[in-house]
User: Which sequence fits this backbone?
């Protein structure tokens, strides 16, 4: 029988299918860093365009949306990057393969970050919330819980 993991993954020593490479946590650190960088670039672009248009910098709905998204995401980027690294180091020190729960936690962290940013930047009124903000935030909280637990499971 074929599964999604069989199609995308590779066989391990004991013939289990792994969906992600061993260095997945390190790749996730890079992706999380790129998301943070892109958020900074977007904010700079908005500031420059407001200056060029001789508008007051920091005003307008687009600026406020991206500012809220960047500010909120900036709280989580370092935490996720540290947890991804901690899981990677714990697995390496224990000489064990990355556990599936660790892979799920990392994936939820990355997806939650992107979904939350999408939810904020596409929201017309920042006073309320959207389903994407809720899903993104929930994914991030679940990811933090899973990864915090997973760091302890390699010893």
Assistant:
């Amino acid at each position: 029988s074929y599964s999604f993991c069989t199609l995308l993954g590779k066989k391990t020593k004991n013939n289990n299918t792994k969906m992600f490479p061993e260095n997945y946590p390190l790749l996730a650190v890079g992706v999380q860093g790129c998301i943070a960088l892109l958020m900074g670039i977007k904010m700079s672009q908005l500031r420059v365009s407001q200056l060029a248009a001789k508008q007051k910098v920091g005003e307008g709905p687009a600026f406020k949306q991206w500012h809220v998204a960047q500010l909120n995401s900036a709280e989580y980027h370092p935490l996720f990057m540290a947890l991804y690294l901690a899981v990677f180091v714990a697995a390496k020190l224990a000489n064990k393969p990355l556990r599936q729960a660790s892979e799920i936690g990392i994936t939820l962290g990355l997806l939650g970050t992107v979904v939350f940013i999408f939810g904020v930047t596409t929201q017309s009124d920042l006073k309320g919330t959207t389903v994407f903000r809720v899903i993104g935030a929930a994914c991030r909280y679940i990811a933090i819980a899973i990864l915090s637990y997973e760091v302890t499971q390699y010893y």
